[in-house]
């Protein structure tokens, strides 16, 4: 059925008259009536009862009206989405994130986004987990990735989340690589690499992990995840991270990741933070949609 016929049908149902609908739509009443008759002919049943006081929907007409309302609503939403895409062709987007997200996950997402929006520019800054909500709330970043916690400003919200437990990253030939889960104490005999700075607030849900981290003396301490990754790949030791910073290496079998047995640390989640009320720019809004979809896909793997 032609879209114009659906618009005509909806307007007749709204005003209850062919003549009034024709005036409202600025078309000839005879042309509008032909469209209604054509609809009735295609469906094989009357859509209106023609009464002296106007047009009244039949049962079949009521069913068609539900379809038309849904169809035209979806069409209006599609048109709005297309307008958003047109406006998002250029601009700048800023992202604040955990260092691990900037190593693999976010660059790959930007490569895919750039294929559709080549004129958009980006800034991506690594911040401490607790600083990211404030950066998004203050407008210093359009969006951010950090550990999910209830302690965030009311002006931001998590658009999407994914499970992100901290586990052991190591080479596939490491003695612990054949374990499905690893006890904290099993890692002590090996060189351990860590990043400086406080643990994410979400880790407070696992006091055993906090106590264990405080008790170890790291062999290498660096704020560069790239350096720690290379140290692991050179078989110098092991590191404690989420999988998100090592997706490429894990996928190609260069590294493996194993979870800890402690239930609390396995409850950690990473989320995409966006403004709760502040309107995002068209390119930022489009990127946020894509990143949320990427997190959903990752969660299903």
Automatic annotation (TrEMBL):
HTH lysR-type domain residues: 1-58
- UniProt GO cellular component terms: cytosol
Query: Does the keyword section mention Transcription?
Result: yes
Coiled-coil residue spans: none
Q: Does the keyword NAD apply?
A: no
Note the InterPro entries from the entry: HTH-type_LysR_regulators, LysR_HTH_N, LysR_subst-bd, WH-like_DNA-bd_sf, WH_DNA-bd_sf
Per UniProt, what is one GO molecular function of this protein? Answer: DNA binding
Looking up PANTHER family in the UniProt record yields:
HTH-TYPE TRANSCRIPTIONAL REGULATOR YBHD, LYSR FAMILY TRANSCRIPTIONAL REGULATOR
Q: Per the similarity annotation, which family is this?
A: Belongs to the LysR transcriptional regulatory family.
Q: What is this protein called?
A: Transcriptional regulator
Task: Tell me what organism the protein belongs to.
Answer: Alsobacter metallidurans
High-level lineage: Bacteria, Pseudomonadati, Pseudomonadota, Alphaproteobacteria, Hyphomicrobiales
